[in-house]
Amino acid sequence: MTPATTLPTAIRGPVEMLWNYHDLHHDPQPTDIGIGLGSHDLSVATCAATLYHRGLFPRIVFTGANAPTTIDTFPRGEAVHYREHALTLDVPDAAILIETTARNTGENITRTRDLLTAHGLTPRSVTLISRPYQQRRAYATCRRLWPDVDVRCASLPVTLDDYIASIGDTDRVVSMLVGDTQRIWLYAERGHAIPQPVPDDIRDAYRALTQAGYTSRLIN
């Protein structure tokens, strides 16, 4: 069966609420390094290339191995495919480093930091480039694990409906959005990220979507 690519009217309200919550709306500013966080979404590499060409950072690190959700799309690893895509967008090979072992956001951060240290680089500021709905979690994780750097977040500008169409699977996008929302407070409780404000309307939207069955990306 072909996955649906249209957001059902019944859940549009809570989905839009979570979508807007996770996008931190940081204004792009120059930083020392751009870090493309591995995922199923190739637009991360597109965004990194775009910001590089705008002169917002002189070097990019793509970080990511594989996950069950990416192995079919990026069989050689997320960072490897991101790098290849950035090269087609005229980012010079010399401006790209890849970290190919990270399997979660925490490892993306710590292993990128270690890779940069091995190359004699100690950035004071970084731009984390991710899926739109990963920004808040990436920010909170980086602030916990790499507190010495100033952190900005970026994603390719896109509407919710256009993003769902680009991924081609409404259920997948909504489920991952719900999963990232749960991780905001769960990872803070476990010490993996700094706490983030979670207003009541965000928790209500989260509950509405879990009750509607979008639970496949939740942590038990």
UniProtKB/TrEMBL annotation:
InterPro entries: Cell_Envelope_Assoc (IPR051599), DUF218 (IPR003848), Rossmann-like_a/b/a_fold (IPR014729)
Any one of the GO CC terms: plasma membrane
Top-level taxon: Bacteria
Pfam families: DUF218
Transmembrane segments: none
Ranges for domain DUF218: 44-150
The protein's name in its UniProt record: DUF218 domain-containing protein
